[in-house]
Design a protein that fits this description.
The chain is mainly beta and about 190 residues long. The protein is built from three helices and twelve strands, in the order E-E-E-E-E-H-E-H-E-H-E-E-E-E-E. It has helices at about 65-70, 95-100, 120-130, and strands at about 1-5, 5-20, 20-30, 35-45, 50-60, 75-90, 100-115, 140-145, 145-155, 155-165, 170-180, 185-190. Strands 1, 2, 3, 4, 5, 6, 7, 8, 9, 10, 11 and 12 form a twelve-stranded antiparallel sheet that branches.
């Protein structure tokens, strides 16, 4: 078992080799928030500029558990899968983070945003525009039929394009950008 803040990896199995400044994580497997984690990586620190190559993924991650461990309980539920293939180089951890390049794919199932009805918010905008009342009662939660994102890391940013979300009768398409060092996220959607 390994613990990273409030996140715990159970059933952890690691095949690791370190020789002359090269750290090979040949295989890392375990369970995190009920999801299956599998990854490998090579960190070459022999020279002044380290290089990193990693690939892996997590499948069936329980989002309610992950969000609760992150300090945001009761915000979202469902499951998510994430896969990545990244490389980078740098003399410091910030340089290495800024230089990461490669694709990341996010797919989800059974996503529920608790305490917010996106459909109601959109209908309120239409009703106000048309000077009409709301047509019906709405669920207090939003149930998505799909949420997915293709992400490309480059130049210290994670660019999400496309970013998709679907409700039963509404489709959203958008894009976003996450500054990896500043942790500043911006996104835009159209319905």
């Amino acid at each position: 078992t390994a613990r990273f803040d409030a996140h715990e990896i159970t059933g952890l199995k690691v095949k690791l080799r370190a020789v002359e400044g090269v750290l090979e994580l040949r295989e890392l497997t375990g369970e995190v928030h009920s999801g299956q984690l599998r990854a490998n990586a090579t960190l070459n620190g022999r020279l002044n500029t380290a290089t990193l190559e990693t690939r892996g993924g997590v499948q069936s991650l329980d989002l309610a558990s992950a969000m609760a461990a992150s300090g945001s309980p009761d915000l979202v539920s469902g499951s998510a899968g994430l896969s990545w293939q990244l490389s980078g180089r740098g003399a410091t951890s910030n340089e290495l983070t800024r230089s990461l390049t490669g694709p990341v794919q996010l797919d989800t199932s059974d996503i529920v945003l608790h305490g917010t009805s996106v459909e109601k918010l959109l209908c309120q905008v239409v009703a106000l525009t048309n000077n009409e009342g709301l047509p019906s009662a709405f669920s207090p939660d939003t149930r998505f039929t799909e949420v997915s994102a293709s992400v490309q890391l480059a130049d210290g940013n994670a660019v999400l394009n496309p970013l998709r979300a679907e409700l039963t009768n509404i489709k959203f398409a958008g894009s976003g950008n996450l500054d990896l060092l500043q942790q500043d996220f911006k996104a835009s959607f159209s319905a």
